[in-house]
Design brief:
Layout (H helix, E strand, L loop, with lengths): L3 H8 L10 H14 L4 E11 L2 E11 L4 E5 L5 E5 L12 E5 L9 E8 L2 E9 L5 E7 L5 E12 L31 E2 L2 E8 L5 E7 L4 E7 L6 H4 L4 E3 L2 E7 L4 E7 L2 E7 L3 H9 L9 H10 L1
Antiparallel strand pairs: 1-2, 1-9, 2-3, 3-4, 5-6, 6-7, 7-8, 8-9, 10-11, 11-12, 12-13, 13-17, 14-15, 15-16, 16-17
Amino acid sequence: MMRRGLILGSAVLLLLAGSVSIAMADEVTDRMERSVGVVYSGEQSVICDQPDGRHAEVFEVGQSAAGVIVTVDPGGTTRSAKALMLSTDLGDRYIMKMAEADAVLGRSVDVVEIVDGSQIRVRLSFDVESSVLLMSEIFNGDGSMYCTTRFVTFTLGTAGPAEGVDVVVQEEATEAPVGDAYPALPVQVAGFSRLKLTLGSQPDVLSAFYGDGVFTFQLTNSTRPISVPELDRQPRVTIEGHEYQRIFELGRAVYAWNTDLGGYVLVGELPVDVQERVLGELPDPKSRGFFERLWADLFG
C-alpha cells in the first residue's frame, strides 16, 4: 500500500463533489480524470500538525502515462499504485466552491474549497495546464491546519520513479454480506456511512469502511480483546474521560480500545475534531480495574 506522502492530496477526494452546481462537480471530476494520464515527476512535502507534534517528510513522486503513481520515501522504499478514480457525491454535509487562487511553484492554479457550514475543511489547488493536484490542505474544525501536501518541485513530461514500474495487484479482502446485522459496526457513525464490510483472516474479526463524503476511516472489530504491539508501547490518552491507545503516523491516526462488544481498532486520515467526534459515538472503552492497572504498570 502506498505511503500517505503520495496519496494525501487525493485521499480526501475519494467521494468528491456535492451540493453545488452539477456543472462545477463535473468540471472537478473531469479535471481529476484528465490528470490520471499526465506524465510528471517531482518532490512532494507533507506537513501534519497532530496532537503528538509536527510530522513532516518529503517524498519523490512520479506518474506514468498508464496512470501508475510511484512514491519513494526518505528511506528509499519504493511503492506504487494505480491513480485513484473518483466519484462525485459529497452527500448533504459539504458544499464545494471556487476560491481565490495563488500560484503554486509559479504555476497558475484553480482552487476549490470544500466547506462544512461556514468552516473550510479542504482546499485543493489544481494546475491549470495539466490538471494535476499541486497542493491540498486539510483543516481542523477550529480552522487550524491539520495537513498540507504540496509539490516542492514539479516537472511535466518526465515520469521519474514511475518510469517502467508495474503495479502489484493486491488480493481483495472477502466482502461480508451487507444485509446481515453487525451491531458492533453500525450503519451510521457521527455522520459517516458504512460503505463496505470485509471479513478478517480470523472468523471473529470484521472491518468496516466509512465515509462522510470527504473523509474516510476503517474500523475493525474483534469479539476478543485486541492488542496492537506498536500501541502497547505508547502512553494511553484520555478523551472525554475515556482511555485509548493511540499512535500517529504522517496524517494518520490509529486508536485501539476494548469494550463490552469486543476490541476495536480505528485507522483514519481524519482531522483531530473528526477523530474525537467519531470516537464519541462508538462504544466506550472498558475502564481497567485496579489489579489490571497494577499488572500493566509492573509488567507492561
